[in-house]
Amino acid sequence: MFMIIYAVVGTEIRERNVLGNGDIACDEYHKYKEDVKLMAKTGLDAYRFSISWSRLIPNGRGPVNPKGLQYYNNLINELISYGIQPHVTLHHSDLPQALEDEYGGWINRMIVYISQKDFTAYADVCFREFGDRVSYWTTVNEPNGFVMIGYDFGIGPPKRCSSSFNNCSRGNSSTEPYMAVHHLLLAHASVAGLYKKNYQDKQHGYIGLSIFSFGAFPLTNSKEDAIATQRYFDFLIGWVANPLVYGDYPKIMKQNAGSRLPAFTDHESQQIKGSADFIGVINYYTVYIKDNPSSLKQKHRDWSADTATKFFCLATPRNSSLEDISRVEYLHAYIGIVLDTVRNGSNTRGYFVWSFLDVFELLDGYKSSYGLYYVDRDDPDLKRYPKLSAHWYSQFLKGRSVRSDEVFSLEKNISSLSYDLDSQ
Which family does the entry's similarity section mention (predicted)? Predict the structure, then answer.
């Protein structure tokens, strides 16, 4: 098994105020040729994107939408024509509404196998139609993060939670997050099994899953905080990684969550264990962990209380301008650390920067500005403008700028990296 790093750049804690919707977003549906050309000029050799299940199969099962099929074929072909390798995610928080309405999505144990069958059938279409050109498949994007915001906190789709945790009309924050991840893991195993059985030998590709993660350090030098930090990792990352590697959840999760954490049968455990060729680790920000055993005494506990921790975040200044110096500094430091881990023996094969363009974010709408390229939403043509990070990253990819002293001098001399990507 190997690892792919997905870096979320310049993230910060902010108030939630979702504006707009993602119907058009950056309109890559119509502008994919322009965007792929821009990727090539930037120097990218790989691009990670999601296929929308509903765009390809509108009702979740049944006939394939020919326009959706054509779009993804066009995008994949365009990427390959520029020497850019497509990395495809099959599920990114977007279960078709028809299936959500029919059987309650990912939480119903009695009917999850219908969902599993539907998801596997959808994946089969993707492998059959695109697998001759796609070598890297991610089954589910951040199952742990998806269920936290959607089934525990109730701030993302499908917006389920206990009323005591948030203003949700339905849900159970104590049980549903565990149920949903359990079923998503079973669905992943089913899809991975299909790929390995019917496609991998012919298409020579890889299939895996991505995990939502933070960097975490003990708040103090105490033994209690050190143990709490490991416990936090077990609950956050081990929740998904342990079943993929060992076939079962971490012992501390089973101890603290008890019967609320579903159990795998022996057959399910064998299906899941070793099902991922790679694990994608999606990093956000760093937190400091403090032991909090009193949370285990709460009458109604969710995932967060079960960790028996408190965490404290380091917020970074919001930087959405074209002169995103902090993002450049982050990129330089982060890529350097990844290189160090590879030199020290980590089986890490690559990384992605989130994101290429400013896009519609699930929680923050258009308030967040994570792209290397700014998208002017006041322009009818949604024109793209390179940020400082795009200039620096392009130079880095082309071997032109890797010195740390140049990074830290940017704030004093921003023009030092100002060149026109369009002229290359």
Answer: Belongs to the glycosyl hydrolase 1 family.
pLDDT band at 111 (very low <50, low <70, confident <90, very high): low
Tell me what pLDDT residue 9 has.
Answer: 33
pLDDT value for 104 = 86
Comparing CA positions, the residue from 163, 127, 405, 148 lying closest to residue 300 is 163
Phi, psi values for residue 348, rounded to 5°: -95, 125
> Angle at CA 318, nearest 5°, toward 357 and 151?
75
Ordered alpha helix ranges (H), 312-409: 325-343, 388-397, 404-408
Task: Write down the pLDDT at residue 20.
Answer: 55
180-206 tens-digit pLDDT: 999 999 999 999 999 999 999 999 999
Taking residues 388-399, what's their average pLDDT? Answer: 93
Q: Which of 309, 411, 422 is nearest to 40 (CA)?
A: 422
Region at 60 (left for phi over 0; alpha for psi -120 to 50; beta for the rest): left
Cα separations in angstroms, 325 against 80, 236, 270, 330, 338: 32, 30, 47, 9, 20
Residues 6+ apart with CB under 8 A from 8: 282, 283, 284, 354, 370
At 19, give phi and psi (nearest 5°).
Answer: -120, 140
348-354 and 2-8: which strand pairing?
Answer: parallel
Structural domain tally of the chain? 1
Q: Helices 66-81 & 28-42, crossing angle to 10 degrees?
A: 10
CATH number at 242 reads: 3.20.20.80
Average predicted confidence (pLDDT) for the chain: 88
Q: Print the domain residue range for 99.
A: 2-423
Phi, psi dihedrals of residue 48, rounded to the nearest 5°: -100, 125
CA 142 to chain centre: 5
Instruction: Give me the pLDDT at residue 18, please.
Output: 42
* 257: enclosing H helix or E strand: helix 251-257
CA distance 343 to 337: 10
